[in-house]
């Protein structure tokens, strides 16, 4: 279970069942206290009552299984997207990378359409660890250009999970430390995911991402 605090409320991501659970102010206070007792004071009686409610909602177990602490990811402050579609940026070295981008899209689509969410997460963690030992010679902007050139040839309409996962696979296999970030917002609730490297958004505007609180980072 992963938790993101949003204002005085919070959202829990149940990876095992691929669902989001909203928590009001009282349960948020209790959940944060369970994660970091010194930071959120709460009385014993109120905490026991909140713990029972969290167990009833499947967020905690009777054995006291803890939530994961809120995820950390740098807030995107700039972006490399969209790629600049000018002739000199579409030289042969970029086109030779298109098959790699199409293969990453194919793998991502296959995983997203056939595996439960928790297995997708484990697969991505393994892929990132395995790829960390690799080295590549393409810059972040070149990889984004490759992806932008390949994407129109992949016959699935753009959707955040597919594109962010595929772009991260492409970056990881060039030895780059991209992050796949899942985030949430409230009022209205919306869940989203994207790729970023440090403070650089990779597949969309950084302005659009600052409204989300990270809930899971790979």
Automatic annotation (TrEMBL):
Matching InterPro entries: McjB-like (IPR053521), McjB_C (IPR032708)
Put simply, this protein is called Lasso peptide biosynthesis B2 protein
Species of the source? Caulobacter segnis
What positions does the domain Microcin J25-processing protein McjB C-terminal occupy? 103-216
Q: Name one Pfam family in it.
A: Transglut_core3
Q: Which domain of life is it from?
A: Bacteria
